[in-house]
Protein: Right handed beta helix domain-containing protein
Organism: Sulfobacillus acidophilus
Amino acid sequence: MDSVSETVLYVATTGNDQNAGTSPSAPFLTIQHAVNVAVQTYLPLGPVVINIAPGTYAEQVTVSYASPYALTLVGSADPATPTVIQPTTLTANLTEENTGYFFDDNVGQTAAIVGIQDTQGPVTVEYLTVSGASLTPAGLATGQWSGIAYINSSGTVSHNQVKSIEVSAIIGQASVHGMEMKTTAGTHSLEITHNYLAQYAGHVAIDLMAGGLTSGVLTATVTDNIIIGDPADTLTPVAQFGIAAGGLSGLVVRRNNIAHFSSPWNVSGIWLDPLNPEATWTIAYNSLVANDNGISIHGASGGVIAHNSILAGAAGIEMGPQFNVPSGQIPASSSNSLIQGNTIAGSPTVATTQVTINGTTVESAITGQPVDGILVWDGQQNRFIGNHVSGFVNDAYMGEDPVFLNNAVSWSPGTMPSYDNQGNSLSFNAWGPLATPASSSGVTGYAVVNANNATPFVVDASNNWWGSPSGPSNIANTFNPATQGLPVSAGVNYTPWLTFVPALDLTEATGQTPFSSIGAALSEATPGASLSLATGTFVENVTVSISGVTLASQSSLAPATIQASPTMSMPATISIQADDVTIQSVTVEAPSSGYGVWVGSDPASPILGAQLLGCHIIGGAIGILFTAETEGSVIGVTVEQFARYGISLGNETLGGQGSRVAVQNSVVTGANSPSGTLTGVRWTDGAAGILSDSVITTVGTGVVIEDTAAVTLSQNQLQSVQTGIVITATTAGSIMTDLVLTNNLVAPTPSVSGEVVRGIWVYPQVAATTMAVIANENLLQGVLDAFAQGVVIGQTDVAATISWAGSGNTVTGWRTGLMVLGDPAVLTFSYNNIVDNVTAANNGSVSPIVLSNNWWGAPSAPTNVSGNLVVQPVLTAPVASAS
């Protein structure tokens, strides 16, 4: 096989299926025809690449063949000119068996936009945009469908966008997956990497199942993907999950950003059903934000959960019984796993106030606060080492928590779980502070709870930090009855305890003489090393070029400081030039004209999995800089006293593809100059990612999105700014799509020296650009200033294609609430509150603008509007969903 030649076929929207298809000048018209030709003529002889030119292809693609050679479907790698597969109808093109696992709910005749089944050779799908945006219920032949599906096939799925995969029906009526990967026959492997699943609102974004009647074997690697659920919770009846897996023989889930999987069904970012008993599995270096549960393990044992950053509402890491068990069988427990070095923080989500099972609310007003950081309600011999957990009613709960999904076993016809939690140990963890439960819940919070649901036993929780050097609060604590430490329940062995906050992943004292500098320690470090930094100031520039290294302060209460050396010419205090590097709880002082932390290299090369957690960045031209070809997370970071950008994500003139970064729970604060030159967060030149649950204040511009696509801003506060959000194109031909703004607060300060103050400004600076914005449930709180404009869309004399879709927004307190310039292609602005503005709306374009079905402050047409506007009919009451 090694000596055979590769055939390249070409497809273009200008092609013809009567062409030979073997040259760019004579391409095929349809992808399916190219696949058919490849299967019939070329794959029996050797590997085939189908090169699909930019454009939109309204078709469904099915691949199946018996040749051992590889097939590659590759689209455009340029995000400005994507290759889009977007059918208007779907017919069943796959046949699936049932593996019997909880999340295997696509059985029989199913459909996929790109469906791959029973291929002997590996299939690669890369650089495609797979969209369900044109599908309607009338166009679906089945309720079981997916964006990309591999059934009994191997291959690679990389650098794709899968979007608009949605279903509004509750679970049981329809099963829709972003990617459906299943093996029920043969042995197969899959690599799923660098994909972007946007605004997903189906059942499971990436569903991985194996087993079945013929015992199929599947191993999978899922890395460096961005998976965004339903940030606005507009489809809350849907039980949506990020990644689900069951029956696999091997699984690696690393460096993924998974956010906004939340609904009354109490859903999870990652869910594992039982895997093959001999399987090895790892969940590491992922960012899981604003999900009901971060990681839910239900029957999988013997794995590793390490170095994840989790922000969750119901449970950060949950280990419970197998669901969907055959009658008479005892559900498998979740046991013998290592849970190490994770940061787990609580933040309320939908499931902190209600839980729904099969359409019925069974728990209401649970606590009003995040419930359990770590929950083990059916699992034995698990080791929890070096984790930081805070912000939950209970940081760790051993037993079936009656507050948390008590009736979940009703989903399973099998025997009741054993609820045996013996042999679990917790050491070198840092607990607290705790969240205060709602007074009506009757719940008492603890750092560690032993619920003794099964045979009474003692939980080993020695060598942990309890929020005080004098240990936890417990009536048996005779060492210091007046301790200010966190409470602990009976049945917990908490002695001895730590008198300091442990660094993440600290497992034991080595007895080694400390290094005098970070550079000296790094010179002897090996991949995966953890460097524990003592309190004090290290005056040096640090370059991390070894993969998997963690730099963490020994104490987050008294963090180490790294200060740029005045004698060094390096541009950054910390330069990250290797994969999977974590900087934890460190204060970084940047050089005046450089960067605090730089993730990247010159020339650009891929650097993946960087994590900045709980750091404080001070000074510099740019606080944090991710340049081309980089991916990572910025969580719980404070950036201040910068001279240009707080956080900059993009090429920064170094070439290559843009960065992909998630910024969450962070604070960016500047010192706003009269000319407003400071910017809080900037995405540019092909960068993508999410900014959520963060505060940006005292800058000229809160967020700039420039010449890039696939950026989501959710639940942020932009205050004391001159302009909240700027979306701008500076390069002709820019394609700026999948820009989502939801649940943000924009509250600017009055103008200084006559500058214009704006809430959201969609600003094409050059012609021939395409801009698509979705804005829902934002609150734009203006100032009645002579130069204040709430939403500005378009630019006079610049011919750009702009689409805006928004509802549930409140625009209030502006000189002009909504201003339209130029001629947007599509403007959907209904079901908003546009109130208490001097001028409610002004259309400065030639074409009429429809602004019907909005609330204008009174149940009648507004009089304070100007230009060619259609405002009737009007709403007679405010929109309740507006922030």
